[in-house]
Design a protein that fits this description.
The structure holds two protein chains of two kinds. Chain A is built from 23 helices and 22 strands. Chain A is an alpha/beta fold. Chain A folds into three domains: about 260 residues, P-loop containing nucleotide triphosphate hydrolases (Rossmann fold); about 190 residues, Rossmann fold (3-Layer(aba) Sandwich); about 70 residues, no CATH class. Chain B has one domain: Orthogonal Bundle (MetI-like fold). Classes of the chains: A alpha/beta, B mainly alpha.
Chain lengths: ~600, ~300
């Protein structure tokens, strides 16, 4: 490949070691990167990916320090010459991180920041020229109406657009190397797929070499020419994606591929037989709108619109959708944190939305929520024991000694050492914190546990362990789970029935197998086509992948909300909103296409 | 299938202690905390015990021994008056210690009052928001718009300036700042995930406010409030200076300084001694506060 320029290696890392104190983070990492090449670096959390990225971007802060080795960029050692390295950082070596909202200055317009960035590294470029260049690049990353968007502030951008603006920020100084650290992780699958496509195009257009760091093997294989596997600070393997998945050389890569959940083939399977009697929770035509004040005065954001489904006792129910689809609003309604504007949420026959505050508090003993953010969801200054006893204290259960015993029992049940009782959660990893969250939710012995993106902050291995834990707890205590998630592969593994949400509506509710093998809604197909997986796809992205982003939930057009992005849109879709109708075998979908298909059958 | 993995046992047995016990332990281990504690205890003990034990009357005049300098500080010093005497021959050590009693009482109780009122108002305003917030905050603004001196003159001029009324006036003037700070922190805390988590668990608003948010945001505020003890002691002096403070002959730092001002050229020690005591008290409190804060940060930071 590209033999002519092979002698002109862009980046060459030799025996790089990085340590924090006496702990080795990177251990003798060596690799080469040719111009125009995309190299993926993957590994679980703690394998040193981000440290590698930061070393290359000359952005190591104590206690991290380089313990040895060389980083040759265009033949010069960056580690030996920090002044030269600093002059390259941001100019020839650009870095994009995974938290675009934190990286953009909220008080400056995006355009001003881009111009500022360019002029900081290249003071010789006049402001007007810098501006033109920024707008041209914003167009290149497909930001709609780039001239206007140039003058907007970061909060007016969606997550995907902010990430694109960060890519522009990195590319604006024409770097030879782009270090992309986990850039797709916070994004929705359809948006992440768009960004990946964009990276490839930019790579071809601007001939930038890309070091693409991520924790998901399918994404890495999708994105790169070659994949390098990092394990405990060492490079264990480097191969082209096809070869890597077909013939992994190292045992770790092998394990990584083996535990990868699949959508359509066998693999880890934790599904339960679908239950169909005794609904624990029934959602009946629930809707919720929020009032906002925008530029054009007050407006109603329709966060949840007419959602309908049943959750059966002992079942695993999944709710999937992209960010902004109303998942979180629905979660707040289901847990009684907010009351619906219309419709009913029946928990064991009792309306949660209409219950008095006192009654709701009693009901809360029976349904609990496990939150998404392992760091923000625990009170920062309480010891683990106090966190676990809090629910018991709230509901005035047991004496002091009994509460202590129950807390310790719950700790060992979720796999936390009871000796940590008086410790603060500060020292716990994300996975351990989620275990603690689960323990807190189950200490009241509820019937229903709602998991709001509980696993999305964890890597593959941790996710698997927690899913095993959930399964065991379900077998022991007979819990019913509702998984709210954007991760189709996770939902595929555990849920027996799944609702797909789009712009506040449940567009499809179907049993697991039916949803993945015979989806009844074009949006479901689009989600499936964008899901990161190594399998041969049933739904090709070219046919189903969406362009653009969901319309704003403020001014919803009449008719089907999906009409503006749907590849099969008909005139009727723009007039009427399809209802959620049965397709047989408990499968429901809201699309006119199903009617016409059935009509064709008849 | 690997079902569960128990986390490793904690390394030190010390972790089995309660969090608050660990913080106090760590704070007490620092030399600054011990020095501060020793100085403060010594001063308080002296202020409480020395005037009665020595039997010297702080208001007894002795014109013959007037303007005696402190020990080794100029001509005519005497062992009987370690810190010298004032223009009426009253013993400065006893006067300063009695003054310390009143000043400390006023300073500490005013600050506690301010912090209490301010924190409660701010907590309610920030937590409930909306109309509650508006009413409470307009009240705060109204309070802020009245200058303290005018408030003091009105209230203390009409009623007699007793110690409780001085505490009340100073406390009334000071709470809005705390209310503002508390409101903004409560507002940002209440939107956090862990508050939502507590709501889902079924915690009442009261429980969230007083058991969850308050313990979290009060310590940093209390740390700032320690500095206000000094400010309040000085304000008391200002009131004393205007004749609205504690009335003579009862000595307070305020009226000792006011008296000593006239003799600054030939008897500098009269106005200086209250200042020296104030510095000692505040330094010791600050030393303790700082090491306590450091211990808190270390423990909550993961030590």
């Amino acid at each position: 490949m590209l033999d002519g320029i092979r002698n002109r290696t862009l980046l060459s890392v030799r025996n790089l070691s990085v340590a924090a104190g006496d702990r080795t983070i990177l251990d003798g990492v060596s690799f080469d990167l040719q111009p125009r090449q995309i190299l993926s670096v993957i590994g679980e959390s703690g394998s040193g990916k981000t440290v590698l990225a930061r070393t290359l971007a000359s952005w190591l802060s104590p206690p991290l320090r380089v313990a040895g080795g060389e980083v040759l960029f265009e033949g010069r050692d960056l580690l030996a010459d920090p002044a030269h390295a600093r002059s390259l950082a941001g100019r020839k070596i650009a870095y994009v991180g995974g938290n675009p909202a934190g990286a953009l200055d909220p008080t400056m317009t995006v355009g001003a920041q881009l111009v500022e960035k360019l002029r900081a590294v290249r003071p010789d470029i006049p402001a007007a020229k810098a501006r033109d260049k920024a707008i041209q690049l914003l167009k290149a990353v497909r930001i709609p109406a780039a001239e206007q968007r140039f003058h907007e502030y970061p909060f007016q951008y969606s997550g995907g657009m902010m990430q694109r603006a960060m890519i522009v920020d990195a590319l604006i100084s024409d770097p030879a190397l782009l270090v992309a650290d986990n850039i797709t992780q916070p994004l929705d699958v359809t948006v992440a797929a768009q960004i990946l496509k964009l990276m490839r195009e930019l790579n071809a257009e601007f001939s930038t070499a890309i070091l693409f760091i991520c924790s998901s093997l399918p994404v890495a294989c999708d994105a790169a020419d070659e994949v390098m596997v990092l394990h405990k600070g060492r490079v264990v393997e480097r191969q082209a994606p096809a070869a890597l998945t077909a013939l992994p050389q190292h045992a770790y890569t092998h394990a990584l591929i083996a535990e990868l959940p699949t959508l359509w083939q066998g693999g880890p399977d934790r599904r339960r037989a679908p239950a169909a009697e005794r609904p624990v929770m029934s959602v009946r035509g629930v809707s919720k709108a929020y009032e906002t004040r925008g530029k054009s005065g007050r407006a109603l954001v329709q966060a949840v619109r007419n959602v309908d489904f049943d959750v059966f006792s002992g079942d695993n129910f999944g709710i999937v959708g992209e960010s902004g689809c109303g998942k979180s609003s629905l979660m707040r309604l289901l847990t009684g944190l907010e009351r619906p504007d219309g419709g009913q949420i029946l928990f064991k026959g009792e309306d949660v939305g209409a219950a008095s505050p006192g009654r709701l508090r009693e009901l809360r003993r029976e349904f609990q929520l496990v939150l998404q953010d392992p760091y923000g969801s625990l009170p920062p200054q309480s010891s683990i024991g106090a966190i676990l006893e809090e629910p018991l204290k709230i509901h005035r259960i047991g004496s002091r000694a009994e509460r202590r015993d129950r807390a310790r029992a719950a700790m060992s049940e979720v796999g936390l050492h009871p000796g940590l009782y008086e410790s603060l959660p500060t020292g716990l990893s994300a996975g351990q914190r989620q275990r603690l969250n689960v323990a807190r939710a189950m200490i009241l012995e509820p019937d229903l546990l709602i998991m709001d993106e509980t696993l999305s902050a964890l890597d593959q291995t941790e996710q698997g362990k927690l899913l095993d834990l959930f399964e065991r707890l379900q077998a022991q205590h007979g819990f019913t789970y509702i998984f709210i998630s954007h991760d189709l592969t996770m939902v595929r593994q555990v849920c027996s029935r799944i609702a797909v949400m789009y712009l506040g509506e449940a567009v499809e509710v179907a049993p697991n197998g039916r949803l993945f093998f015979d989806p009844g809604h074009p949006y479901t197909r689009a989600l499936l086509s964008a899901a990161p997986t190594l399998e041969p796809r049933r739904y090709r992205p070219e046919d189903c992948l969406l362009e653009g982003e969901p319309p704003s939930p403020i001014d919803l057009p009449p008719g089907c909300a999906f009409a503006s992005r749907c590849p099969h849109v008909m005139d009727r879709c723009r007039r009427d909103n399809p209802a959620l109708l049965s397709r047989g075998d408990q499968a429901l979908a809201a699309c006119f296409l199903n009617e016409s298909k059935e009509a064709a059958h008849v | 299938m690997s079902s569960i993995d128990i986390t490793a046992a904690p390394a030190e047995p010390l972790r089995e202690r309660k969090v608050s016990a660990r913080i106090w332990r760590l704070a007490f281990a620092s030399i600054e905390f011990r020095i501060g504690l020793a100085v403060l205890v010594l001063l308080i003990a002296a202020a409480v015990l020395y005037p009665s034990l020595s039997g010297i009357d702080p208001v007894k005049m002795n014109i013959k021994a007037k303007l005696t300098p402190p020990l080794f500080m100029g001509e005519g010093w005497a062992w009987s008056h370690p810190l010298g005497t004032d223009q009426l021959g009253r013993d400065m050590l006893v006067r300063a210690l009695v003054g310390l009693r009143y000043s400390l009482l006023i300073g500490v109780s005013t600050t506690v009052l301010m912090l209490l009122v301010g924190a409660l108002v701010g907590l309610f305003a920030g937590y409930f928001g909306g109309r509650t917030d508006m009413v409470l905050m307009r009240l705060t603004d109204a309070q802020l718009s009245i200058p303290m001196i005018i408030l003091a003159i009105t209230i203390l001029g009409v009623s007699r300036p007793t110690i409780p009324s001085i505490i009340l006036v100073l406390g009334l003037a000071g709470w809005p700042v705390y209310a503002r700070v508390m409101r903004s922190t409560a507002m940002s805390e209440r939107k956090k995930e862990y508050v939502r988590g507590a709501m889902v668990l079924g915690a009442t608003d009261w429980r969230i406010m007083f058991a969850l948010i308050l313990p979290l945001v009060l310590p940093p505020m209390a740390f700032v409030a320690v500095l206000d003890i000094a400010r309040m002691m000085i304000f008391e002096s200002v009131l004393g200076f205007l004749g609205l403070g504690v009335q003579p002959p009862t000595p307070t730092f305020g009226n000792i300084i006011a008296d000593g001002r006239k003799y600054l050229m030939n008897a500098w020690w009269i106005a200086t001694m209250p200042g020296v005591f104030m510095v000692l008290v505040l330094t010791s409190i600050n030393l303790m506060g700082a090491s306590l804060e450091r211990a808190r940060n270390a423990i909550y930071g993961g030590a």
